[in-house]
Amino acid sequence: MRKADEIIEKASKYLITSMVSKIQPVVIDEARGAIVKDVNGKEYIDCFAGISVVNTGHCQPEVVNAAVEQAKKLVHACSYVYYVPPTIELAKRLAEITPVPLQKSFFGNSGAEAVECAIKLARKYTKKYELIALMCSFHGRTFGTLSITGQASRRKYDMGPYLSGISFAYPPYCYRCPFEKQYPSCDLVCARSVRNVIDYCTSKGVAAFIAEPVMGEGGIIPPPPEYFKIVKEILDEHDILFIADEVQSGFGRTGKLFAIEYYGVNPDIITLAKGIANGFPISACVARPDISNSFEPGDHLSTFGGNPVSAAAAIANINVMLRDNLPAKSAENGNYIMKRLNEMKENYEIIGDIRGKGLMIGIELVKDRKKKTPAVDETRKIRELTREEGLLIGSGGVKGCVLRLQPPLVIEREQIDKALDILERSIKEVNQI
Fold first, then answer.
1. Which of 319, 338, 406, 418 is most buried, judging by how many CB atoms fall within 10 Å of its CB?
2. Which letter does DSSP use for residue 82 in this model?
């Protein structure tokens, strides 16, 4: 039996994997930059980055060295029992780079924990308990974060009941507009409908509205430029906080340090994870000082949150990202990829929509462009074909028909060209079936 087969068999025996439809049959041994190598020596161009995590590239030397040096001094002390310098320095760094007036951070280990913290802070500060989220959204897999996730496929009936007081607004999903309108003649009815949700679906006790500036798991859905300004005006009228969930879209992924920068509004709370430490587990909920200070003793804590090794890695990661201007590189390469993909769209009827910002790109596949029938099986097949040729991509979306391109921001142009060639061959093969 080959080494890879032995490892896969061991995983099947000892790991709980029944909650995923399929683990990609790639046994990863090592990775550098945008290249992943399996245990048999085969190389892959990674255009998924561990679900949008290793933004500065796999095993970025300065990030790894920062973590190693910190591990030699202190691995754990609990940052909410003692003062831990790397953790405090990271909080200061986040205050410097996140939108004004965000200043104080709570550290956890995952995106879901950051969102849980944001929910609790919003409720504590406003003394209101209701929340508004978006259909098609994804915010995590804890009970709290699933409660505000607008995807029926994630919220299984036998896992409930979920939190009460949650209302869902229509998503800014232009390709599948729930109002059957076209942008920009639509007058952003999706954004304006938030007022109706407040008036007719809530008890007027809404603490916060939460949204991803670019929806990730929903299928890489960027709202129109005016969307959040309209929504924020409505929220301010009703004293409702705005939580920007940047777990997937943050840290240069979309061509700006944070995706909300595209929309000209400042959130009251922001949630961060994934790209914050380039693969080391840490997350942050960053809020205005007055909101942050509403927590009282016993309200919240995390044993491992703000771990000094992960904090040191995060600081180094941010420094590399800013020094090398990776958000701008993401924007430039994103435009390059989008141009090539739109050329493909002209040639292959299976491509229904191309959308995204920076290196957060979605390709929605359909069986029929007019009916927009989701091409679910075809999406799976293309992902398999690209993997066989040495390209790793993601797939998903609320209809299960979106290919996801989210490579490390350091991916080289030559690697992009090779990846797009592989992708086009795979799309062409499936398009002809």
1. 406
2. S
Residue 1 pLDDT grade (very low, low, confident, very high; cuts 50, 70, 90): very low
User: 350 and 233: one domain?
Assistant: no
Q: Considering its fold, how many domains does the chain have in total?
A: 2
Question: 8 Cβ partners below 8 Å, 6+ apart?
Answer: 25, 27
pLDDT band for 153, please (50, 70, 90 cuts): confident
Would you state the pLDDT for residue 111?
98
Average of per-residue pLDDT across 88-106: 98
Are 245 and 269 a contacting pair, CB within 8 Å? Answer: no
What's the CA gap between 72 and 409, in Å, rounded?
29
Give the 3-state secondary structure of 174-194: HHHCCCCCCCCCCCCHHHHHH
State the Cα–Cα distance between residues 431 and 433, nearest whole angstrom.
6
Domain boundary among 302, 323, 344: 323
- How sure is the predictor about 416, in pLDDT bands with cuts at 50, 70 and 90? very high
Residue type, 419: A
pTM: 0.97
Tell me whether strands 373-374 and 360-368 are parallel, antiparallel or unpaired. Answer: antiparallel
